[in-house]
């Protein structure tokens, strides 16, 4: 006869399962929630927001109060019905997941999806730390939210017309923050140096200048050299995206710094790459700022002369390497590079022959 009526979902219930001991029933609905009920009195223990779309399937792990859910959001999630905690998320399917099955031992889960694939998930022996899982999930959500922000790189530009738009990630945002901190340190130290010179001039003797602990950690380098070290520490693939995130208020200081560093001949290629990129994305603001005109004029002279020097050095080195190669080839009567490739090809041919022979014998 009729025993209990469980109500509370706002949209149709799509799936349900009862735990092995008959104490709990879990229901999944199109309202994206999973509700855990007690079968003794029919009370709702907890309502969990489970998926970003309809919950399509739900099953308890045998002999436990753990259960898995599958959703239209392409994810499989594991939950603890006693502690009402989300344990882990399994991602891999490319379309909606319709159903799943848990093995009697609980070591395997098989899922079936609209992408026409079955996936077998195996329990590993690695300990699962919930705090780490949650931290990773928070980072992924933050990265996704940063990537979705529609902020044009140049004021006045639309997102579709912006040629230089790249995907912002946590790494590029952190790299931009490191550049900003380095530029601020450069500003502070430059102001301190000016004050120190004025004090020395007024005192008529040399007064020791206290060194910033950050600069001391890098071997008592100058503030401009510290900024260069920060740029060198950024991955090449993330450099341009990091400069896109950088506010324009830091660009004038960077242009002055680049002029100083290029004159010294420090990492000319890296600095020129950053310089040309900043000029392209902030062209309108730089040309309209009369204060930056002399800086740009100096940069033009410095950059052209230093790039020519670097090009001459590279050309000289290439010519020297070609000469040494010819000399070595003439002495040993061996063709470099061509010999090595042919030797490797011969090895591959022999290995293929051996594999074919083994196949025919078996």
Annotation keywords:
single chain; alpha+beta; Methylamine Dehydrogenase, Chain H; 3 domains; 4-stranded antiparallel beta sheet; 48% helix
How would you summarize the topology of this molecule?
Blueprint: E1 13-18, E2 24-29, E3 33-38, E4 44-49, E5 55-60, E6 66-71, E7 75-80, E8 85-91, E9 97-102, E10 108-113, E11 118-122, H1 130-148, H2 170-203, H3 213-217, H4 223-232, H5 239-245, H6 251-264, H7 268-281, H8 283-288, H9 293-332, H10 338-361
Antiparallel strand pairs: 1-2, 2-3, 3-4, 5-6, 6-7, 7-8, 9-10, 10-11
Fraction of residues in helix: 40-55%
Cross-sheet strand order for the largest sheet = 1-2-3-4
Biggest sheet: strands, sense, closure? Answer: 4 strands, antiparallel
CATH topology heading of the largest domain: Methylamine Dehydrogenase, Chain H
**CATH C-level of the largest domain:** Mainly Beta
Compute the average pLDDT: 82
CATH architectural group of the largest domain: 7 Propeller
- The CATH H-level superfamily of the largest domain is YVTN repeat-like/Quinoprotein amine dehydrogenase
What's the number of domains?
A: 3
Family: Belongs to the WD repeat WDR3/UTP12 family.
Organism: Equus caballus (Horse)
Protein name: WD repeat-containing protein 3-like protein
InterPro entries: SSU_processome_Utp12, TBC1_cilium_biogenesis, WD40/YVTN_repeat-like_dom_sf, WD40_PAC1, WD40_repeat_dom_sf, WD40_rpt
